[in-house]
Amino acid sequence: MEITIIGSGAIGGVLGAYIARAGVNVVFCDIEQEHVNHIRYKGLRIEGPAEEFVVKGEAYTPEELIARNKQLDWVFICTKAHHAQQALDQVCQLINKDATIVSFQNGLIDLKVPVQKKVSEPLCCFVNFSADYLEPGRILYGGVSSVAIGEFNGTSTDRLKVLKNILEHWGPVKQTHNILGYLWSKLSYAALLYATALVDETMATVVDRKEFRPALIELCAETLEAAHVKNVNVHSFDVWRPELIFPRENQKQELLNAEFDRISTWMAKNKKQKSGIWRDIAIRRRKTEVDFDLVPILEIGRQHNLSFPLTKFVIERIKELEQGAKQMSWDNLMDLKKLYEDDVLR
Could you tell me whether strands 58-60 and 123-127 are parallel, antiparallel, or unpaired per DSSP bridges? Predict the structure, then answer.
């Protein structure tokens, strides 16, 4: 068995390193030549809360992988959501009908494999552990957190069992009949993370600010309402309990405050203190995954005559931050709070 990691940054790098350390044949693939060279010649360093280790392995750019001209067995697509389809298309010529493709994107992404390839639909993987690509050959790992896998149609298959065995070289993995429930729940949590990235502060600091919590809770409720109209039964994970947020009529302020206190404490203990969204904007100066995470929520709202004003605001403000038209500031959250008080509460 050979596992090919397409996109060997934060998530792909961590999973690939743990799997490779267990003795499984792992091939790393990434568009960054310097990162590839580092893995190939010096190794990939994982800096976690409990341990640090280095693994060496085969590593290629996509062009080098194609020139290698070897059929792929298991393919893990671990790129950012907006690069995933292109990444798959680029190596598609190496995929045969016996290959298994696994999507590690948390957003609403539907990877397409050409029909003539006769490859089974990609497996879905929900990932909630935190990691950051720091520099070539070096990844910060926040520690074990929830991972769940499933077939898109909810069935139980042999390839799911094999995937579970592979991923358990990293840590505990849940096989589920409701992978969409996990992915949609993560989207509602992602809405919160996008809001924390409006400020140049730690996630825990933002979540701890009680004056912003009503707006943040409603922001998350908008995504959960979209899931509801899509008939998705969302699933809790780690410290995230969407059932406390939606349906709105079931909200109890005391429980929500206690829950957000718990989330803030959990975030503060994580080795990764700021979100990948923040890092994309502030450090890597690149686009976030907002078009795949939050923009579809607005489209679902339009289809069902629902207004999601807070989601719309966060999308617009994130795009302004990406373009440099706005700066990270508490003023952004003040604007979100004002919108909530003026448009939602009335």
Answer: unpaired
Do 20 and 145 share a structural domain? yes
Domain end call among 143, 177, 211: 177
Check: CB of residue 226 under 8 Å from CB of residue 170.
Answer: no
What's the confidence (pLDDT) of residue 115? 67
How large a percentage of the chain has pLDDT more than 90?
A: 91
User: Which pLDDT score, from 0 to 100, does residue 313 have?
Assistant: 99
Q: Are residues 163 and 189 in the same domain?
A: no
pTM: 0.94
Q: How confident is the model at residue 116 (pLDDT cuts 50, 70, 90)?
A: low
Is the same domain home to 111 and 242?
A: no
- CA pair distance 99, 72, nearest whole angstrom: 7
- Which residues are within 8 A (CB) of 34 and not within 5 positions of it... i.e. 6 or more apart? 136
Instruction: Domain of residue 243: give its range.
Output: 180-344
Kind and range of the H or E run holding 29: strand 25-29
Residues 55/3, Cβ–Cβ less than 8 Å: no
Among 145, 177, 209, the domain boundary falls at 177
Residue range 35-50: mean pLDDT, rounded: 96
Nearest-angstrom CA–CA distance, 145 and 258: 21
Number of domains in the chain: 2
Tell me whether strands 138-141 and 131-135 are parallel, antiparallel or unpaired.
Answer: antiparallel
* 51, 59, 121, 142, 205 from 167: Cα distances, Å: 18, 20, 19, 17, 32
> Reduced to 3 states, what is the DSSP secondary structure of residue 104?
coil
Residue 313 shares a structural domain with residue 191: yes
Nearest to 226 by CA among 303, 286, 119: 303
pLDDT in tens, 194-225: 999 999 999 999 999 999 999 999 999 999 99
The mean-pLDDT minimum among 3-7, 79-83, 204-208, 251-255 falls in 79-83
Q: Are residues 229 and 85 in the same domain?
A: no
In whole angstroms, give the CA distance from residue 215 to residue 212.
6
